[in-house]
Amino acid sequence: MADQTQAERMTSGRGFIAALDQSGGSTPKALKLYGVDEDEYSGDAEMFDLIHRMRERIITSPAFGSDRILAAILFEQTMDRDVAGTPSATYLWDDKGVVPFLKIDKGLSDAQHGVQLMKPIPDLDDLLDRATAKGIFGTKERSVIGAADAAGIEAIVAQQFDVAAQVLSHGLVPILEPEVTVTIPDKADAEAILLDQIGSRLDGIPNGQQVMLKISIPTVPNLYRPLVDHPKVMRVVALSGGYSRDEADELLAQNTDLIASFSRALTEGLSAKQSDDEFNATLDASIQAIYDASTAGT
Predict the structure, then answer these.
(1) Mean pLDDT, rounded, for 176-203
(2) Annotated active-site positions, please?
(3) Is the entire prediction scored with pTM above 0.85?
(4) How many Cβ atoms from other residues are within 10 Å of residue 67's Cβ?
(5) Residue 153: which of 185, 187, 121, 124 has the closest Cα?
(6) Closest C-alpha among 227, 183, 235 to residue 201
């Protein structure tokens, strides 16, 4: 079962979630933004070694701690590796006081009805057992909404809740992430449909259990307030969705009790070429800005 101290932290702690879960498809872009070009490594093994080195540098930085960061979402390979000689999830909680989550989705299917469902997740029960054994508190699963198509959004939400039920059966807390693409012209309409669909399914969560939700920052501020206040929802968090960090922070701050779960916006400005002092100062400023936006109005 989920650790009670960690559950209390995720329910009422002040701060945000660091999303450190870039996977195979997004890793080359993440490394390029970090100042490592594709001609500097050869093959997936070297690529994943480099991205782990970046994540380890972030996690072990003095700027990265429980005073401003509630949790971190890990890629499966990160969970299976060490940070500073300690298993990653153990290091996060024991050394940093940061709650560990695991990304469990395996990418997106081709678009149908304006959405991209998750690909099948083979051997999910085995992965969840392994996550539990390694001290993981919860999971995250991402799918994408590209149009205000009611049938497509209903399918997205149904799949998200089906996977969430499997996660809950292992005593873990799922983060459902039905991301609405922020550049679509009917974003506000898609978000209204999404809110209705999620709301209609939350009461089906068994008593005594809760889920978390990760959503795009809404066009209408505080649109998701009913989800924030719902007794079956532990926390609602927001992704940066392609906005710059400054834009994402500004938009996030307009939403009471919505906190960040930023990935690219968190690492913006960091470089493999920076000295430790430069790296830590850049990360500290980024963390502070995201923390301020996450706690505005709370």
Answers:
(1) 97
(2) 177, 214
(3) yes
(4) 11
(5) 187
(6) 227
